[in-house]
Design brief:
The structure holds 2 protein chains of 2 kinds. Chain A is mainly beta. Chain A is built from 1 helix and 28 strands. Chain A has a domain of about 90 residues: Beta Barrel (Thrombin, subunit H), CATH 2.40.10.480. Classes of the chains: A mainly beta, B alpha/beta.
Chain lengths: ~325, ~375
C-alpha cells in the first residue's frame, strides 16, 4: 500500500517535472529562445521553457527560487520562477546583456552590455539600475571576488580585464591579456584571478593582490591545430584542486591543476564547447556545446565524460540548482 | 591607508587618460571608375573603406583611452593620382606616419615612389598579385586579399566538392585579366582542368535577354562549373541560373570568395556588423573590413609596444609572435616576406556564408592559411628578414 502510493507519487513527479524539487540543470539555447531543463538524477531533458530573444547568460538567485536570464536581443534580464517555469518579472539590464554575475549579497547583479561597452549594476529588490560603468569594447566575462569587493569585466576587443571596486563602482585597474578575453574567475580563497583569452588561446592567472600576472597557461590537446584551441569558460573547484577550461572549437575541456598551474589532461566533449558549470557538490560538470547542440556531463571524481544530452539549438549558458 | 592607496591609483589612471599619445593615420581612397552599364544596386557605397577605418579608430580609441594611446584619422577620397600624392605629402608634413591606400596599381606605385620610405603604406583595396610577388614595395603591408588568395580559396572548395572541369568566362578589363590569370594558376595548383575559356566583350543590353544570350554563350564541352571573371559587374551577375548546362557559377559572382560580407555572423562578427550598421545605415563591405583590420592591427601594435612611432609599429606587426583577432575565428598575422595579411577567406553568396577556406586536408608546414595566395617560395619579396 505504502509502496503503491510511493510509486504514484513518483509517477506524478515524473509527469510534472516542473514541480519536482530534485536537482536541475538549466541550459539557455541561444538560437531557440528556450531554456532546457535537465533532471540531475536521470540526466534527461524533462522540460523546455520558452524565454526571451537570444538567451545567453543564465544564473540562479541566491535563494535558488529564481533564474535570471540575459535575453540579449530583448534587451532585458528575465526573472523566471523555477517552480512554474513562468517569467515573473524583468530587470533593467541596459542594451544587449550577455553575461552577468551575482554579488555574494544576492542583491546586486553586474551585467556586461556587449554592444554599448558598459557594465550595468542592477539592484534586484528595487529592480532598478544603480549605475553604468564605462569599460572597453565588447565587454563579456564578469567575475567577482569571494568577498564581493572586486569585480572583473573582460572586454573582447580591447583585450583587457577591468578591475572594478564594487564599493565605489570605479574602474581601479586595467590588465592587458591576450586577444578576446571571455571569462574571469577568482579562486575560492580569492587569491588568484583566472582570465581566458579565446583567440590568444591562453588563460592568464593573476595574483589578486598585486594584480600581476603569475602565469600564462597554454593548451595543446593532441591532434588539434593550435588556432582551434580557444579557451572560453573556466570553472575552479572550491577545494583548490582542479580548474576546468572549455576550449571552444577544439572540442576539448582542459583539466588544470590549480596548485601547480599545469595542464593535467584533456577531455573530448561535444562541438564548440563554451560554458561550463559544476554541481554544488562538485561531483559533476556540465558543458554547453554550441555546434553539436548538446551538453556533455563530466564525472569530476573519475575525470570522465559520462553522457551527452541533446538540448536546443546553440546551447550557451548553464546553471545548476541542487534542490 | 587603504583609502589613500586607492586614491593614488585612481589619480594615476586619470593622469594616464588625460595625456593621450596619438598616432596620426591618413586614409586615401581613389574614387573607383564605374561604367554606367553597372546597375545602381551593384555600385559601391559612398565612403566605402573610409567608414571601416572610422569604425576601427572608434573601436581602438576605446581601448587606447585606458592606456593613454589614440589614433587620429585624416581621410580623403580623390579621383586623380596627382591629387592623391599631394594630399599624402600634405598629411606627412602634418605628422602622418601611416597611410592606408585603396587605389589602382598605377596610383599605388606612383604613391610609393613619390613618398619617402619612412611613410608606411597599408594597401586596403588592391588585389594584384604582382605587388606581393614581383613588384615588392618598401614598407608596405596589404590587408586586401590578393586575387590568388580568392581563387585558391575557391579552387580548394572545388576539390572539397569534387568539381574539377571548369569553363572560364572573363571580361576584358585589365583587372578581369589579372583575376583570370589567378584563376588559371589556382586551377593548376589544385589539379583542376580548364576545359574552355571564353571572353565576354559584348556591349548589348542584357537585361531582357540574359537567358538567351548567356546560355548560347556558355555552350561548349561538358563542364562542372562556370568560373566568372568580371571584376566590374558588367555581366557576371546575370550568369547564375543562365548557363547552358545547369551548373554552379563561382568567381566574382555566384559563389564568391572575399575578406568580408554582411552574411558573416559567427566568431562574434555579428557584434561588429551591428555596430557598423548602426553608424552607417548600411552593411560593412570587404573594402570597409580591409581598412578596419588595418587600423586594428596598428592599434594592437600600439598596445604591444606602447609606441606611436611608425617604424616601431611596422616592426611589431611583422614580428613572428604578432597576431590580431578579426572576427574570423583564427589569429590573423602578416606574411613577413610580402606583408600580406594572412586570413581565412570566407566563401559566400548574397544570402549565406557557404564555407571558409582553408579547407581541412590542405596542409602547410607553417600555417594552413598560407595555402591561400603566394607562399614564400613563390614570392621575391623580403619585407622582413626574420621569420
Amino acid at each position: 500500500m505504502y509502496l503503491q502510493s510511493l510509486q504514484k507519487l513518483c509517477l506524478i513527479a515524473l509527469l510534472l517535472p516542473g514541480l519536482s524539487w530534485a536537482g536541475q540543470v538549466y541550459v539557455s539555447n541561444e538560437k531557440d529562445d528556450t531554456v532546457s531543463v535537465i533532471d540531475l538524477d536521470s540526466l534527461e531533458v524533462v522540460d523546455t521553457w520558452l524565454v526571451g530573444d537570444r538567451p545567453r547568460g543564465i544564473i540562479l538567485s541566491k535563494d535558488q527560487k529564481y533564474l535570471y536570464i540575459c535575453a540579449s536581443e530583448s534587451d532585458t534580464i528575465q526573472i523566471l520562477d523555477r517552480a512554474t517555469g513562468q517569467i515573473v518579472g524583468e530587470l533593467p539590464s541596459g542594451e544587449d546583456p550577455e553575461q552577468f554575475i551575482l554579488h555574494p549579497n544576492g542583491d546586486w547583479l553586474y551585467a556586461a552590455n556587449e554592444d554599448d561597452a558598459l557594465l550595468t549594476v542592477i539592484d534586484i529588490p528595487g529592480r532598478k539600475v544603480i549605475t553604468q560603468i564605462d569599460v572597453g569594447l565588447e565587454p563579456e566575462g564578469v567575475g567577482i571576488s569571494p568577498d564581493g569587493n572586486t569585480l572583473i569585466v573582460t572586454s573582447e576587443t580591447s583585450n583587457m580585464a577591468h578591475w572594478i571596486d564594487t564599493r565605489t563602482n570605479e574602474n581601479i585597474h586595467n590588465s592587458l591579456v591576450d586577444a578576446r578575453p571571455r571569462d574571469a574567475k577568482f579562486t575560492a580563497d580569492g587569491k588568484q584571478l583566472w582570465v581566458s583569452a579565446e583567440i590568444g588561446g591562453t588563460v592568464s592567472v593573476f595574483d589578486a593582490n598585486s594584480r600581476e600576472e603569475i602565469k600564462k597557461i597554454h593548451f595543446s590537446p593532441k591532434g588539434v591545430h593550435a588556432d582551434k584551441v580557444q579557451p572560453v569558460g573556466i570553472r575552479l573547484t572550491e577545494n583548490g584542486k582542479y580548474a576546468f577550461v572549455a576550449l571552444g572549437p577544439s572540442n576539448h575541456v582542459a583539466i588544470v591543476d590549480q596548485q601547480t598551474l599545469e595542464v593535467l589532461d584533456y577531455l573530448l566533449v561535444g562541438r564548440r564547447v563554451w560554458q561550463i558549470t559544476m554541481t554544488p557538490d562538485e561531483k559533476m560538470l556540465f558543458t554547453t556545446n554550441g555546434v553539436s547542440g548538446d551538453v556533455s556531463v563530466i564525472d569530476v571524481d573519475r575525470l570522465k565524460v559520462i553522457k551527452s544530452i541533446k538540448v536546443g539549438r546553440f546551447p550557451w549558458g548553464v546553471a545548476i540548482a541542487d534542490e | 591607508m587603504l583609502a589613500c592607496s586607492m586614491s593614488l591609483l585612481l589619480s594615476f589612471f586619470v593622469n594616464a587618460n588625460s595625456q593621450i599619445n596619438e598616432l596620426k593615420v591618413g586614409v586615401l581612397v581613389q574614387s573607383p571608375e564605374i561604367p554606367s552599364a553597372v546597375p545602381d544596386y551593384l555600385k559601391p557605397n559612398e565612403g566605402e573603406g573610409l567608414a571601416g577605418a572610422l569604425q576601427a579608430a572608434k573601436d581602438s580609441n576605446r581601448t587606447g583611452k585606458f592606456l593613454g594611446l589614440g589614433i587620429n584619422l585624416n581621410m580623403a577620397q580623390l579621383d586623380d593620382q596627382q591629387a592623391l600624392i599631394s594630399q599624402a605629402k600634405e598629411w606627412m608634413a602634418d605628422g602622418v606616419q601611416i597611410l592606408l591606400v585603396d587605389a589602382d596599381t598605377q596610383a599605388l606605385l606612383a604613391l610609393r615612389k613619390a613618398l619617402p620610405e619612412e611613410l608606411i603604406l597599408i594597401n586596403t583595396g588592391n588585389r594584384e598579385d604582382s605587388l606581393r610577388t614581383e613588384t615588392c614595395l618598401a614598407n608596405t603591408l596589404h590587408t586586401a586579399a590578393s586575387f590568388s588568395m580568392q581563387t585558391d580559396a575557391l579552387a580548394q572548395w572545388l576539390r572539397s566538392r569534387r568539381l574539377s572541369e571548369v569553363m572560364l568566362v572573363k571580361g576584358d578589363s585589365e583587372s578581369d585579366k589579372k583575376y583570370a590569370e589567378a584563376v588559371k594558376a589556382s586551377l593548376k595548383k589544385f589539379g583542376h582542368k580548364l576545359v574552355a575559356e571564353k571572353s565576354w566583350s559584348f556591349d548589348t543590353d542584357l537585361r531582357r535577354v540574359a537567358g538567351k544570350e548567356l546560355q548560347a554563350f556558355t555552350q561548349g564541352p561538358e563542364y562542372d562549373l562556370v568560373w566568372v571573371a568580371d571584376t566590374r559587374n558588367l555581366f557576371g551577375q546575370l550568369l547564375p541560373y543562365n548557363t547552358f548546362l545547369p551548373r554552379p557559377v563561382v568567381g566574382t559572382h555566384g559563389l564568391e570568395a572575399g575578406e568580408w560580407s554582411q552574411v558573416i555572423e559567427a566568431w562574434g562578427a555579428v557584434q561588429m556588423q551591428n555596430r557598423f550598421f548602426k553608424d552607417n545605415q548600411r552593411p560593412m563591405t570587404a573594402r570597409d573590413y580591409n581598412a578596419w583590420i588595418a587600423i586594428r592591427a596598428l592599434s594592437e601594435a600600439m598596445t604591444k609596444t606602447r609606441s606611436t612611432q611608425g617604424a616601431e609599429l611596422l616592426a611589431a606587426m611583422l614580428h613572428p609572435g604578432f597576431y590580431i583577432a578579426g572576427y574570423k575565428g583564427r589569429k590573423l598575422s602578416f606574411r613577413p616576406w610580402s606583408g600580406q595579411l594572412r586570413q581565412p577567406v570566407p566563401l559566400f553568396n548574397q544570402q549565406a556564408l557557404v564555407a571558409t577556406a582553408p579547407f581541412e586536408g590542405f596542409l602547410h608546414p607553417r600555417n594552413e592559411m598560407d595555402t591561400l595566395g603566394a607562399d614564400r617560395r613563390e614570392s621575391r619579396c623580403t619585407l622582413a628578414s626574420q621569420e
